[in-house]
C-alpha cells in the first residue's frame, strides 16, 4: 500500500503491521511523531482500517446536554466553566427543572439526554438518584447518559457508600450509561498540575471498570494539547485499550482537543494554546490503529473542532460526529467558538459531501439507520 510514497521503511513496517494487528505503545509513539509523507501515510492507513472495520457510514445521535450546575469544589486548571456560589453567573438546577428540560428535549426529537454538573457540595449519590427518578417520570423511554466518574466518586463520598452500591442504586433509578470524562490525561504526574483535586489514574480506572462490571457502559475520552507530552497521549490510549480488553464496556472513544482561551492554566502561562491541526489528526489516526476492533467507534467533537475540521478528521480514522446537543456550556466557557446546538441536516450535508453515508444511531451503536 505504501511502496510508492517514499516514506521511512520503519514507518512502512509499522503501518503494514497496523492493518493486520494492534500496534505497540512504542510503535504508536513513532507514529505520533510523523511528518510529511510519513504523516500522510498514517492517515491513509487509519482511514483504510476505519473503512474495513465500520464501513462508509458516519453516525450521529439526536441528543441534548443538561449541565445542571456550574458550582464546583474542584480546582482544575483547564476549566473555565466553574463559578463560586456567590458569583452572579452561578446556577444550580433542581431535579424538577432538569426533568422539565429532558422532557423538552424528548418532545423535540432527542433520544438521549446527557446530564452532568460541577461537584457541588450539596450534591451526593441520592441527589443523582432523584434526578434520574424525576427524568424517568416524565420521559420513561429516553436514554439517560449521565454523571462522569468524578461525579460518581463525589456522590459516593457524599452519601458514604461504595462505588458499587451507588452504581447499583443509580442503575435501578434509570441510569443507562456514563460519559467517560474526568480522564483528561491518565498520568499522575500530569494530573498533579492539570487537575490536582481530581482522582488519580488508578481510581478513574477502578470506577470505570466497576461501572462496566455492573452493566453500566461508558464512553472514554482523552483531553490533550495542554501540558502533556506525546508519550503521555500514547500511554493514555494504551490504558484505555487495557480496560477495554478486560471489560469490553467502552462504547466509543472521544478525543477532546484542549480549549485554552479562558482557562486558568493557559492564562497563567503553564499550558500550550491547545493542539495543532496535525496533532489532532494524529490522535484520531493513532487511536484507530491502536484500538482497531476493540473500540470500533471514534467520535469527532464538532463543538471543539468546528464542522470544517471535523469533516477532515473523519478522513483520519473517525466514524462518528457525536450529538446534535442542545445546551453545551463547558466547551463554550473555555472558548469554543462553534456553537452549542446543531440540526441533523448539517451533519448530513458534510457527510454526503465526503461521499460517505449519514446514519442516525442510538447511544450504544446497536441501532443504526441510514438517512
Summarize the structure.
The protein is an alpha/beta fold.
What value does the average pLDDT take?
A: 91
Class from secondary-structure proportions: alpha/beta
| Uncertain stretches | 328-338
Record field, number of beta strands: 9
Morphology call: globular
N-to-C terminal Cα separation, in Å?
33 Å
Helical stretch tally: 15
Q: Could you estimate the helical fraction of the residues in percent?
A: 40-55%
Radius of gyration: 20 Å
Give an account of the 3D structure.
By secondary structure, the protein is α/β, with parallel strands linked by helices. Helices cover 46% and strands 12% of the residues. The strands form three sheets. It has a four-stranded mixed β-sheet with strand order 7-1-8-9. The chain is globular. The relative contact order is 0.15. About 3% of the residues have low confidence.
What secondary-structure arrangement, pairings included, does this model have?
Blueprint: H1 9-18, H2 25-32, H3 36-54, E1 57-61, E2 63-67, H4 95-107, E3 112-116, H5 125-138, E4 143-146, H6 149-159, H7 163-173, H8 188-194, H9 201-213, E5 218-224, H10 230-247, E6 250-257, H11 264-267, H12 277-291, H13 302-313, E7 320-323, H14 330-334, H15 344-353, E8 357-361, E9 368-370
Parallel strand pairs: 1-7, 1-8, 2-3, 3-4, 5-6
Antiparallel strand pairs: 8-9
Helix pairs in contact: 1-3, 2-10, 2-12, 3-12, 4-5, 5-6, 5-7, 10-12
Amino acid at each position: 500500500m505504501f511502496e510508492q510514497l517514499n516514506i521511512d521503511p520503519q514507518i512502512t513496517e509499522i503501518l503494514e503491521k497496523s492493518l493486520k494487528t494492534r500496534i505497540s505503545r512504542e510503535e504508536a509513539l513513532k507514529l505520533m511523531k510523523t511528518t510529511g509523507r510519513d504523516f500522510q501515510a498514517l492517515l491513509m492507513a487509519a482511514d483504510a482500517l476505519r473503512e474495513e472495520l465500520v464501513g462508509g457510514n458516519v453516525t450521529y445521535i439526536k441528543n441534548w446536554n443538561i449541565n445542571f450546575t456550574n458550582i464546583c469544589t474542584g480546582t482544575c486548571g483547564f476549566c473555565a466553566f466553574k463559578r463560586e456560589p456567590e458569583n452572579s453567573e452561578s446556577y444550580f438546577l433542581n431535579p424538577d427543572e432538569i426533568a422539565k428540560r429532558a422532557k423538552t428535549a424528548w418532545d423535540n426529537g432527542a433520544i438521549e439526554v446527557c446530564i452532568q454538573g460541577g461537584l457541588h457540595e450539596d450534591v451526593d449519590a441520592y441527589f443523582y438518584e432523584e434526578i434520574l427518578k424525576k427524568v424517568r417520570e416524565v420521559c420513561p423511554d429516553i436514554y439517560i447518559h449521565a454523571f462522569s466518574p468524578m461525579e460518581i466518586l463525589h456522590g459516593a463520598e457524599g452519601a458514604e457508600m461504595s462505588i458499587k452500591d451507588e452504581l447499583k442504586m443509580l442503575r435501578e433509578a434509570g441510569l443507562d450509561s456514563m460519559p467517560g470524562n474526568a480522564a483528561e490525561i491518565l498520568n499522575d504526574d500530569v494530573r498533579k498540575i492539570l487537575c490536582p483535586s481530581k482522582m488519580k489514574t488508578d481510581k478513574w480506572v477502578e470506577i470505570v471498570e466497576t461501572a462496566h462490571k455492573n452493566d453500566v457502559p461508558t464512553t472514554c475520552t482523552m483531553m490533550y494539547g495542554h501540558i502533556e507530552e506525546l508519550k503521555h497521549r500514547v500511554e493514555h490510549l494504551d490504558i484505555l485499550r487495557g480496560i477495554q480488553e478486560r471489560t469490553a464496556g467502552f462504547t466509543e472513544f472521544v478525543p477532546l482537543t484542549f480549549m485554552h482561551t479562558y482557562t486558568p492554566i493557559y492564562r497563567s502561562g503553564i499550558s500550550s494554546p491547545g493542539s495543532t491541526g496535525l496533532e489532532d489528526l494524529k490522535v484520531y489516526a493513532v487511536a484507530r490503529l491502536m484500538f482497531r476492533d476493540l473500540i470500533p467507534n471514534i467520535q469527532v467533537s464538532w463543538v471543539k473542532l468546528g464542522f470544517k475540521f471535523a469533516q477532515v478528521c473523519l478522513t483520519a480514522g473517525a466514524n462518528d460526529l457525536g450529538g446534535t446537543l442542545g445546551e453545551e456550556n463547558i466547551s463554550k466557557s473555555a472558548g469554543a467558538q462553534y456553537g452549542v446546538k446543531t440540526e441533523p441536516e448539517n451533519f448530513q450535508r458534510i457527510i454526503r459531501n465526503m461521499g460517505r453515508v449519514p446514519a442516525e444511531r442510538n447511544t450504544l451503536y446497536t441501532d443504526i439507520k441510514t438517512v
